[in-house]
Design goal:
Number of strands: 0
Shape: globular
Order of helices and strands: HHHHHHHHH
Strand content: under 5%
Structural class: mainly alpha
Number of helices: 9
Distance between the termini: 51 Å
Largest sheet: none
């Protein structure tokens, strides 16, 4: 199971984060994206080494890179002096990789941070690259693309749900369930907006958008069943199956396909602009 988790996290570090950064405008974002492999490659290598000083050092390099992303968010907030739905989603996307990286450093150190097991910390690394960075960044792109109230609601509820889920790690399963409900609502709004956007897209982009949106319908139901099953006696998939279904589908079906679709949409929009 952990091998699969590490593969998903490697995708997040090497592909999802830099691809996402290429789709948003923020001061310093281009420079950070250009230098991102300097942090991401050590982070990925640390996943595949045994726990110890070398993997801790490499994971710490990745942590520094993620803190630079968080600094971009702080700098943008200071310069804008406002916090709208787009900024809420964007800043959440830029901040959550640091949570993942902190969990990675702790896990590589064999340190049960805040009492969480090493397995939970490994899953936290994956969670905050995809349910954190990718989900919030796509919500940001959605609200940039339309002024519809559903897009605004998505850009607020996705970060809010992510934050409540994080609190649930500390406050208990009922809080985590509440976060899963809010996050699911936000992600379904994201999916709805992407599906509507697909109707005017060319064929390959349409396929990517529909695949990304459709994936969310299934994976978020799995997330809800998992969270609900830890509060009341309802069935849910074992952890290894959640990784193989919810985790892999979100990484490939939602995040990768979704970001590739948005890149194609932006390229198409730029090609239509007058010279």
């Amino acid at each position: 199971m952990l091998t699969l988790v590490h593969l998903v996290v490697s995708l997040g570090m090497l592909v999802i984060v830099p691809l996402g950064l290429s789709l948003v405008k923020i001061d310093g974002g281009t420079t950070v994206r250009r230098w991102w492999p300097v942090a991401a490659v050590p982070g990925v290598i640390s996943l595949w080494l045994g726990r110890g000083p070398l993997s801790i050092t490499l994971a710490s390099i990745y942590l520094v890179g993620t803190l630079v992303l968080a600094l971009l968010a702080a700098n943008d907030l200071i310069s804008r002096k406002r916090l709208r739905a787009r900024e809420i989603a964007l800043y959440t996307a830029l901040a959550t990789p640091a949570i993942a990286a902190l969990a990675l450093v702790a896990e590589r150190s064999s340190y049960e941070l805040f009492g969480f097991s090493l397995t939970v910390l490994s899953l936290t690394v994956a969670h905050f690259h995809f349910a954190g960075f990718a989900a919030a960044l796509v919500a940001c792109l959605v609200v940039e693309s339309t002024s519809a109230k559903t897009a605004t609601a998505a850009a607020i509820s996705v970060p809010l749900g992510t934050g409540i889920v994080l609190l649930g790690f500390f406050l208990g399963d009922p809080v985590e369930l509440a976060g899963a409900v809010v996050l699911t609502a936000g992600m379904w709004l994201v999916g709805w907006t992407m599906w509507r956007r697909s109707r005017a897209a060319e064929r390959s982009t349409k396929v990517l958008l529909i695949l990304s949106a459709g994936t969310l319908m299934v994976t978020m139901l799995l997330a809800l069943s998992w969270a609900l099953g830890h509060v009341v006696a309802t069935p849910y998939l074992p952890l290894r199956w959640m990784v193989a279904t919810h985790g892999v589908a979100n990484a490939l079906g939602f995040a990768l396909c979704g970001l590739l679709a948005w890149r194609r949409l932006k390229e198409w929009d730029e090609a239509r602009r007058p010279a």
